[in-house]
# Entry
Amino acid sequence: MKKFMKIAAIVSVVLVFFGTFVFLYRKSQPEAVSYQILKAEVKDLRQTTVATGKIEPRDEVQIKPQISGIIAEVYKEAGQEVRQGEVIAKVKVIPELGTLNSAESRVRLAEMNGKQAETDLDRMERLFQGKLVSSEEYEKALLAARQAREEIQAARDNLEIVKEGITKSSASFSSTLIRSTIDGLILDVPIKVGNSVIMSNTFNDGTTIATVADMGDLIFRGNVDETEVGRIHEGIPVKITLGALQGMAFDATLEYISPKSTENNGANQFEIKAAIVVPDSVTIRSGYSANAEMELQHVPHALTVPESAVEFSGDTTFVHVLTDSVPLQQFERRRIVTGISNGIDTEVKEGLEPGDLVRGLKNGQ
# Structure
C-alpha cells in the first residue's frame, strides 16, 4: 500500500511538472495576429472643405424714425409681410419747451408784422388810386404784404411741426408715420407703445423701429481658413446643410471671398458669401446655423487606398502589401507616392497597382 502511494505521488509530480512546462511553452510562443485586408481601387476622388456659418437675408434693413418722440401705435409685428411704404408704427411728438416757446413767439411776431403790412398796403392802395404815389411804391407795399403772409404761414407750419411733427398741408408725407422702405418680412419689432424713440443723427444711430428683410434672397455667410482659401474661387458650386433641417441639402454658388483676413481663436480666416437656391416649399429662417461644403480638388479615376492603410514616416509614406496568407498573413513594406486625400481615401500616384491588397487595422480594433 505504501509502495502504491509512493508511485502515485511521483506520477502527480511528473504531471504537474509537464503541465507547467507546456503552459510556459505556449505562453512563450508569439500570438498569431490577423489584419484587415484592403484593396487598392480606382475611383473619383474629391477633396473638400467645410465652412461653418449661418443663413441670413442679403438685404436686411433697420427702419428708423425721422423724428424723435413717443411710440403712439404699433401696426405690425414680427413675422408679417410688409410692402414698401406701408406704415409700421406711429410716433407722437413731445415738443421741447424752449423750441415750442420760440415757435409760438415766431407766430405772434409774424402776425404783428403781417397786420402792419396789410395796413400799409391799404394806405398805399388808396394813395395809388388817387395818383399820389408811383406804381413802383405801390408794388413794393404789395410785395411786403405778400411776404408777410408767407411768413405767417411758415411760422404756423413750424409751430405745427414742433407740436405734431407734421403740418396739415403735408399730412401724406408725415414723418410721424414710420413706413417700411422695402418689401419683405418683418424680422423684429423691438419697440412697444410708450417707448421713447430718437431720430438718427451725426451723434446717434437712432432707435430701430423694425428690422425688415427680403427672405426670398438668402445667402450663406461663413469663414474659411487661410490654408484653404487659395484653392477656392468665386463661382464654384457649394452644398449647404442646415442643423435645423436634417437630411436636406441646398445648392449655392460662391460669390464673395473677403480680400482681408480676420483672426479667430488664433487662426486667420477669410469671410465668404454664397447665394442659396431655396425651393418654394421650404421655409428657412434668418440666423439658421449652416455648413458649406466646397470642393478643393478633384482627381477622376484615381488609384486609392483607405487612409488607415497608409503609414507615415517623416515625409515618406508606406503601405504593407499582402504577399502570403497561408498559414499566416505575410506583408511587404512598400514605399508609395501619395496625392490628395478626402480623409477617408488617399490617392496613390506611384507604388501600387489596381487590385493590390494592403494591410489595414488589426482585426478586433
Summary: The chain has four domains: 35-48+300-362, 50-57+215-290, 60-93+172-213, 97-164.
